[in-house]
Design goal:
Elements lengths: L1 H14 L10 E4 L11 E8 L6 H10 L3 E2 L5 H10 L7 E8 L1 H10 L17 E2 L8 H5 L11 E3 L4 E3 L5 E5 L17 E4 L18 E6 L3
Antiparallel strand pairs: 1-2, 2-10, 3-10, 4-5, 4-8, 6-7, 8-9
The chain binds 2-acetamido-2-deoxy-beta-D-glucopyranose (NAG) (3 copies).
Amino acid sequence: MSSLLILFLTLPAVFSTESKCPEGFTLVKRTPTAKNNFTKEWCLGVFGSEDCGNRDYARSICNNNKASISLPESREELQLISNASRLSHDVYSAIDGQMSPRCIKKYIQKFYSFKTVEGECNIKNQLFTFEDANTDPTFVFSLLPNYPNKGDGHRFNDTTPFVRAISGCLKLSQYWLVKTSTGHMSGGGDARTDYCMGQQGNDQYPKSDEIRSVFCGRPPL
Ligand SMILES: *[C@@H]1O[C@H](CO)[C@@H](O)[C@H](O)[C@H]1NC(C)=O
Ligand SMILES: *[C@@H]1O[C@H](CO)[C@@H](O)[C@H](O)[C@H]1NC(C)=O
Ligand SMILES: *[C@@H]1O[C@H](CO)[C@@H](O)[C@H](O)[C@H]1NC(C)=O
């Protein structure tokens, strides 16, 4: 009898349990689809640190928070993250998504003519590889005006244009994360590609812009 009572008392608590995220992360609810590994809930956080333009370093920031480098799936998620974020007005955040080495080669061959590569290396296919299988990148692609969109690698001489390096790592403009004095989003913003070595760039591999935060994602606790 008493064990029945306990069962009766604890059941509602079990079913009403809200998923929680660790400190620094915000819970987002998602529509499960094949493109986000049927994810219903995900924890997203933006973590500030120097030189997140260096992809390995940005990745390590997420790993230290038991998460992987991630990205927002919708405008609503960005607004939630924006409200939760205590970041200053830095310009860019590193997000998941990196051009595959095979595709970088193809774009280096084609880039001088600014032509989109079809097939495997088209953005609709496997141009970018993602570490976070639980987020659908379609929304971020909709923010990407063109790609790759950084041309420091260009060197032209009279006859032969050639390219040294292609920017292959995705970043998100933090206009999304900036709140105005009235607490509302300031509006626009887009996604872009940048070089992946951050401030450690060199002659062979150009420096990226300064990117001082990274999106990390993980399952709820
Ligand atoms: C974000 O904050 C603004 C202003 O405080 C509020 O109006 C809005 O509903 C919040 N959005 C979300 C998704 O929490
Ligand atoms: C997809 O989701 C399942 C269930 O949550 C998880 O176990 C699996 O690791 C996920 N797949 C990938 C590739 O992350
Ligand atoms: C232009 O660059 C190509 C590739 O490096 C080289 O083969 C060619 O000689 C250069 N042409 C001139 C006019 O410098």
